[in-house]
Write a structure and sequence with these properties.
The structure is a homodimer. Chain A is of the alpha+beta class. Chain A has four helices and five strands; from the N terminus they run E-H-H-E-E-H-H-E-E. Chain A has a single domain, classed as Alpha-Beta Plaits (2-Layer Sandwich), CATH 3.30.70.
Chain lengths: ~100, ~100
């Protein structure tokens, strides 16, 4: 199992759109997430800061991400969600953070 | 079970101290965390941004946090870790983020 913590910045005037979108994520998007072996997935906000935390329990993360990137439902979803990000014009969205501590 | 995602800002010249401290957390601090019913606890960095994710599976979070705040090991630990935070002079450390999406 691998843990991921990622951060991104939203556009100030798109925070509400992002919140609203994620309050009712399409079932086919949830299905794509599930098929990608992602679990315990949360997204949290503080102002324009967005943090995603999830756990990956498949055995080929890169291949699963590539398959998700090609999923038609995800491509439709991203048409709505990606423009919410400050880095949209540069194609910068969630970026991996560095885990410096873990305890269970 | 409650999930927490929190964010804080570190002082630029203290990021390395913070990383080093958390690479070798004292056993009595880990014990205090465990006694506080915190599990699956990770801290991640991106530049001066610090994000803590953890799960609480006790039944009185506020009481557990108060007890941890009074733990002598934690008080000693915080003498080292708290000065790493940008908000140290104002007593501002990790602050709760707002969860806007969850899927498992």
């Amino acid at each position: 199992m691998r843990r991921f913590c990622q951060r991104a910045w939203l556009k100030e005037d798109k925070v509400e759109d992002y919140r609203r979108l994620h309050a009712a994520v399409w079932p086919e998007v949830l299905e794509a997430i599930r098929e990608s072996h992602i679990r315990n997935y949360s997204i949290s906000l503080f102002g324009t800061l967005a943090v995603a935390y999830f756990e990956y329990d498949g055995d080929d993360y890169e291949a699963d991400m590539r398959r998700m990137d090609a999923n038609p439902a995800m491509l439709r979803w991203w048409k709505y969600s990606k423009p919410c990000f400050k880095g949209h014009d540069e194609g910068v969205y969630y970026e991996d953070m560095e885990e410096v501590f873990y305890f269970d």
